[in-house]
Amino acid sequence: MEDVRKTVTPQLRTDKGASRLLLIDLGEGKNRLGATALAQVYKQLGDKPADVENANTLKQFFDAMQALVAERKLLAYHDRSDGGLIITLAEMAFAGNCGIEVDISALGDNDLAVLFNEELGAVIQVAESELTAVREILNTHNLLPLTHELGAITTDDRIEIARGNKNYSVKNVPNYVVFGRN
Question: Which segments constitute the PurM-like C-terminal domain (predicted)?
Answer without folding.
Answer: 28-161
